[in-house]
Protein: Ion transporter
Amino acid sequence: MTFLPSKKRLAHIVYESDDSASKNFDLILLALILLSVLVVILDSVQDIHQNYGTFLYWLEWFFTIVFSVEYLLRIWLSNDKPGYIFGFYGIVDLLAILPAFLSLILVQSQYLMVVRALRFLRILRILKLPEYLREASLLISALKSSRAKIQIFVGSVLTIVLVMGSVMYIIEGPENGYTSIPRAMYWAIVTLTTVGYGDISPNTDLGQFMASIIMLLGYAIIAVPTGIVTSELTHAKNKSEKSDRHQFKICHGCSLQKHSPDAIYCRKCGTKLESPE
Amino acid sequence: MTFLPSKKRLAHIVYESDDSASKNFDLILLALILLSVLVVILDSVQDIHQNYGTFLYWLEWFFTIVFSVEYLLRIWLSNDKPGYIFGFYGIVDLLAILPAFLSLILVQSQYLMVVRALRFLRILRILKLPEYLREASLLISALKSSRAKIQIFVGSVLTIVLVMGSVMYIIEGPENGYTSIPRAMYWAIVTLTTVGYGDISPNTDLGQFMASIIMLLGYAIIAVPTGIVTSELTHAKNKSEKSDRHQFKICHGCSLQKHSPDAIYCRKCGTKLESPE
Amino acid sequence: MTFLPSKKRLAHIVYESDDSASKNFDLILLALILLSVLVVILDSVQDIHQNYGTFLYWLEWFFTIVFSVEYLLRIWLSNDKPGYIFGFYGIVDLLAILPAFLSLILVQSQYLMVVRALRFLRILRILKLPEYLREASLLISALKSSRAKIQIFVGSVLTIVLVMGSVMYIIEGPENGYTSIPRAMYWAIVTLTTVGYGDISPNTDLGQFMASIIMLLGYAIIAVPTGIVTSELTHAKNKSEKSDRHQFKICHGCSLQKHSPDAIYCRKCGTKLESPE
Amino acid sequence: MTFLPSKKRLAHIVYESDDSASKNFDLILLALILLSVLVVILDSVQDIHQNYGTFLYWLEWFFTIVFSVEYLLRIWLSNDKPGYIFGFYGIVDLLAILPAFLSLILVQSQYLMVVRALRFLRILRILKLPEYLREASLLISALKSSRAKIQIFVGSVLTIVLVMGSVMYIIEGPENGYTSIPRAMYWAIVTLTTVGYGDISPNTDLGQFMASIIMLLGYAIIAVPTGIVTSELTHAKNKSEKSDRHQFKICHGCSLQKHSPDAIYCRKCGTKLESPE
Structure:
């Protein structure tokens, strides 16, 4: 049929996002994903489930079928089939449709609802747009290059939580809600992160004194991850900017790339530099 | 009459703030705005409403009439009437007087009180002063240039909230206060942002373990927006300083702009530099 | 008498801290200040007050007399008497001794106890040591130079608090604890700053949705003051370091100070530079 | 016997981590440490203690004996015996085995459990790996070089806590839970650090107003430690990077050290530079 696009054109629409057809495909898909997530959320509210449960059930199946068609389409169109199926996006796409089919086989389907929420991960598709990719990779590389510092920080936090949890378990004891070291550690995390539910809180004088110390610690050490991320981001920004500024002047004599913006001659071989524009 | 200032002079007083008359106009207006906001706040306190309700009611009308006169004056004096009326400040000025007039027509006027609070936005007029404008625009441009990073951050936060909310809804269930996914998501936001009211808090062991993870996540990822804003501000500061330092010396021989502040001859072509003042 | 130091020597001991006698004076004074603060704190605990009340009362008078003698000594020794008396430290020193004397005259002396706590401000004397003075002035100048940005930030926070407080007062109403706009604003501050006591918390669905927005706002905008302070501190640090690095090479021909660290000849007049060491 | 490694080889396995045998030793030790910590934690949970108490008791002794052997081995193999025994790691290693032995002698052995938790500090051994050592020393030197600023910050926080605690004790009084100044100071710390348990919260209008101020203060001054740490880290990063980049090229003619990475001739005396590798 002449109405249908060729397989190559279809693959372009599905996998790229640089012309109007492929961009519309992405936008419609995104809207469907958001709607399907909304269905899962609304279905969990008692009132809505009782009144519109059947309607939401069929809507759920509608989205499942649409996403299944899309999933099969992506496998069919992909040049690197195993790369897609076992890659991050392939698994996310599968997780979005699997729970509905499993609910037909399994009886206790209520636990599949959690996995339905993983459908939200599909929104990460938006990150495939070039402008986001660059920013996200900047963030991730910033975090990666300070991995050792972050591990030390996490280790310190866990040590504080364990030691302070144990100490509070001894000081306050089960009669004040600190029924075990794990629970006391839960309290220590609630306190160190400055969440402070108040479901468990110290009642003895010594306990309140120890709690004050852990609070001040938590208040202070939040500066460490912030400092790490900020210094990495500032560094990455300066670096990317410097390379932006200097990359356009290339010596044709010796291929040296990074020239001072006002250089006229190559500082290495003396060849006259040409402007890139 | 000779007592009244000319329309041009009046427009200057109302719209500019560079001489004593126009500065006084701004200050008196600001005081009136603050007083009118105070009236709205005081009127909401039961004791004060019962004792001084009538007085506050007439005060409210006094401010409404003053602001209406000012609004009409601004329209009359503006060179670009639609620009003012449909601009940010025009709409804010209108919103400050509209509720009072609408309360005459509508019966359920209590809901108009919210809109009365929007009157506080008029204080933003202070930002029209040149020294604030520059700083605010620096902040806004810093936020704008890291828009993509912020969107990724907000997306991640919402994904964490949805997934963790759903998981906690399954783990804790309605018997522990997690009555629906939206409510569990509300809890996840309360926890991730380290607010921690304690109106809903996990009771099961697994729930407390999951809550600990979301708390530590919230404690850590606050570093990301901070890092973004800081690196942008540091960058903007460096940039504005560099341009401050170098902008004034331009070589008339080769048009090279960025000269060291104490340079006497152009470093590129040897022409003697002239001072801009 | 020959045992007593001269007035000049005494003034040195009291006002300076560069030899052992003056340093010991500062340390003993600091210990006395800390002990006097401890007395005030301990006296507030019921058990301790009942058992040791009389002892603490006389201890209180001991400190008051010591500090009074020190206060009079400082006035007598000062070269600029009004400068000391009406300066920051003079007022703090007076506030530390005044409440005790006033309690003899006034009947309701319990309210004077608050002012007794102001005695703790005397610890700021430690900041007079040169190493602290430099750091503190760096912090203060960093905050000062970003005053306009901080004012905008505080203005935004107050606007959010007022608008969100009013909105929540309408949505939740007095039946959920939001009894007036001021109380709703108190809740908004508790939430925006991520403190989250839970003494007032939203119960309606719409209220919880609005609360989620204000929480996320609070979580995000904390990045702004952090960014401002950090960028100012980084800037101040770079500046002070640069001036440290360059200050030692001075051209004897034209008195130009800031030379590149490896410069051999003055870039302005060609005189050969000499090393400062 | 030929099966046993020499003392020198054993010392290498125990103290270094640069070949497979010594790395495996470290990993097995780390696993044992983690397991022994887990035993302490699990033993504190009522259900587990009642069912598996005896098993955990013998497991505890197993770890104690293993760690005792390791401790004695380390002393025997060390070249600097007092340096190990009284150093940080020696004391931590001793604290990990001491409580079990003391429980044989002492009756009230339950208080020794806290000290058992100190065993977790042994995990810090992981920091002896070269890659962590470098990062940790960077963090510590960053904190050290801003010690004066941090002391000023801590001093300010304690002053705010004392003054605000005293003020709230007077305003709210014992009838609202502020039973003494120490307790009011505990509340002030809970509030300033934005933890906000809600076990004590202000009830009077004036108290809520003061609480709002302390919350906003806490929300704002968290920017100060963050700013300090960030500016130090950024500074340390720039410095270490600069020295990385420049350290390897030294001119043999004039001993100038900092050359641009691609420089071929010394920019000061024209001597040809030699590569360090």
User: Anything to note?
Assistant: DSSP finds eleven helices and no strands in chain B. Residues 46-77 of chain B form the longest helix (32 residues). The radius of gyration of chain B is 28 Å. Chain B has a mean pLDDT of 79.
